Amino acid sequence: MSGSALGRVITRPARRRDAERCELCGRDVPQAHAHVLDEQTGELLCSCRACALLFEQDGAAGGRYRPVPERRVRLSGPEPAELGVPVGLAFFVRRPDGGVDACYPSPLGVTRWEVDLKVWERATAGCEPLRAMRPAVEALLVNTSRGVSQQWLVPIDDCYRLVALVRRHWTGLSGGERVWKEIEAFFADLTSANASEGKGR
Prior knowledge:
It holds the Pfam family DUF5947. This protein is α+β, with helices and mostly antiparallel strands.
């Protein structure tokens, strides 16, 4: 996702549930809805289920819109230290050109750097979900803050919701208790959603 698209996601004002619309066809959508990535502009767009499914079928033919997957998988590896994560929260995104960007949320937005491909390949060699991670629309999300150690394969929009959360609630030098409670709740929701999806399979 481009920097401008990130800014759009973070600064987009909160809208009423009944004001949510598909940005492709204009149809009303619920608060929990699909997203697609516009590969020409790099923007993340709200999408109804019908449009998301349509572009999922078109994706194999190289269409403009790439649906954001909904799968969330709790991983047992790789260890964050293997990837050189210098902070407690970070996410890793494969670019369409094959490179990998590491990003971490901050009060100012996202700081990113390019991961050495040999390091990435070595760290993810034994993790099939990461080897199959979809470029631009899925991410490896790691949390090693406050003694926690979690690794997740998540949709990219989850990562940007986390970025927005950090920006909204961060105070002082260390973030303040409010932001860390919000981060804990974010990962608790991931765990709960993952458990629910597992029961539905």
